[in-house]
Design goal:
single chain, 182 residues, alpha+beta, Peptide Deformylase, two-stranded antiparallel sheet, 27% helix
């Protein structure tokens, strides 16, 4: 699919809905290779903990969640998962503001910007794994938040659609906020 991946920052691309994939498409050699490339690319980033294919200009409903410690969240544990056709089936409770950034939404310094985005603390999601097997799982906390963020990307929704741009802070400001919470 892609020889060189680059993070897309253009809203006109990011607002595209991604194409859902059939089990046969998931199992294709081309898609299997893409999964590995997207996972490797996501893991190579300093800040990102998840990446949807649309963010590298591939409008297919593929997401990788590659949670790892980051400069702003050093307490995170490693969590790697490929999710195809990721969909939020159910949110539990009320949405609460959670600090969130996006590698495709950056400030003038080229680093992600952050804002408190309303998210469910716990969600039930459905998706296909890289073997085309269906899953229906519940995620909560940070991983639940990431799942909601990536499911939004599949629908063409970005975080600047969810809160006013004036509520965003720079990466440095976010780091200070996180340090003060410790």
């Amino acid at each position: 699919m892609l020889k060189t991946m680059k993070i897309v920052t253009e809203p006109e691309i990011l607002h595209q809905k991604s194409k859902l994939l059939s089990r046969e498409e998931v199992l294709s050699d081309e898609m299997q290779q893409f999964f590995g490339e997207l996972m490797d690319f996501s893991k190579s980033g300093k800040y990102g903990v998840g990446l949807s294919a649309i963010q590298v200009n591939e409008p297919v409903a593929v997401t990788v969640v590659t949670s790892k410690p980051t400069p702003n969240r050093p307490e995170l544990e490693v969590f790697d998962k490929i999710c195809v056709n990721l969909k939020i089936e159910e949110g539990f409770g009320e949405k609460v503001p959670m600090w969130e950034g996006c590698c495709s939404i950056v400030g003038e310094d080229g680093l992600p910007i952050y804002a408190e985005i309303p998210r469910y603390e716990k969600v039930r999601v459905s998706y296909l794994d890289e073997k085309g097997e269906p899953h229906d799982e519940i995620f909560e906390g940070f991983i639940g938040e990431v799942m909601q963020h990536e499911a939004d990307h599949i629908e063409g929704v970005i975080i600047t659609d969810l809160v006013d741009r004036s509520q965003f802070v720079s990466c440095d400001e976010f780091h200070k906020i996180m340090q003060e919470r410790k």
